[in-house]
C-alpha cells in the first residue's frame, strides 16, 4: 500500500492576526486610505483584500474602517470649506475623495437618448452641388 503524503500549503504563511481588525478601525477613524492601512499593517493591498475575503470579522472591521475614513474626510472637507481658495483647494480635495471612496466619484457613463427615450437619430444631408 502507498503511504499517504501530507500536502504542504503553497506560498508563505499568512501574516493575518485577529487584532488587525481593531487596528484597521483605529486607522479608519484617522482617515487612512486603503494603501496607508495596508502599509501600516505591514502587508500589501492585495493581502489586505484577501484577508477581507477570508476572515469575516476582518471584513466587518474593514467596512467600518472605510466608513470612518470617509466620515473623517467628509467632516474635514465640510469644516475646511470656509478657508480662502489659496489655502484650501476644494477641487483637489474632491478628486482625492473620488479616488478613495466610490460614492464620491463623478459618473463616468453618459447616456444619450433620442425623443421619448428612443434611439438617437442623426439626420445629416450632404450639401447639394451648386
What does this entry look like structurally?
The protein has 130 residues and is mainly α. It has 5 helices and no strands.
In short:
By secondary structure, the protein is mostly helical.
Amino- and carboxy-terminal Cα gap: 96 Å
User: What's the helical proportion of residues?
Assistant: 40-55%
Characterize the biggest β-sheet: none
Strand portion, in percent? Answer: under 5%
Order of helices and strands: HHHHH
Structural class: mainly alpha
Low-confidence stretches: none
Query: Which geometry do the CA atoms define?
Result: extended
Mean pLDDT: 79
Q: How many helix segments?
A: 5
Q: Radius of gyration over alpha carbons?
A: 25 Å
Give a count of the beta strands, DSSP E runs of length 2 or more.
0
Provide keyphrases for this structure.
single chain; 5 helices; mainly alpha; 130 residues
Structural topology:
Elements: H1 20-29, H2 34-41, H3 45-54, H4 56-80, H5 90-100
Helix pairs in contact: 1-4, 3-4, 4-5
Amino acid at each position: 500500500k502507498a503511504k499517504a503524503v501530507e500536502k504542504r500549503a503553497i506560498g508563505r504563511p499568512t501574516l493575518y492576526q485577529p487584532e488587525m481588525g481593531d487596528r484597521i478601525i483605529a486607522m479608519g477613524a484617522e482617515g487612512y486610505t486603503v494603501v496607508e492601512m495596508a502599509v501600516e499593517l505591514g502587508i500589501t493591498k492585495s493581502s489586505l483584500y484577501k484577508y477581507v475575503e477570508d476572515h469575516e470579522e476582518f471584513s466587518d472591521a474593514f467596512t467600518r474602517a472605510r466608513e470612518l475614513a470617509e466620515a473623517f474626510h467628509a467632516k474635514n472637507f465640510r469644516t475646511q470649506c470656509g478657508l480662502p481658495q489659496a489655502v484650501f483647494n476644494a477641487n483637489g480635495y474632491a478628486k482625492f475623495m473620488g479616488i478613495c471612496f466610490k460614492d464620491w466619484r463623478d459618473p463616468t457613463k453618459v447616456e444619450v437618448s433620442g425623443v421619448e427615450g428612443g434611439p438617437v437619430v442623426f439626420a445629416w444631408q450632404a450639401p447639394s452641388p451648386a
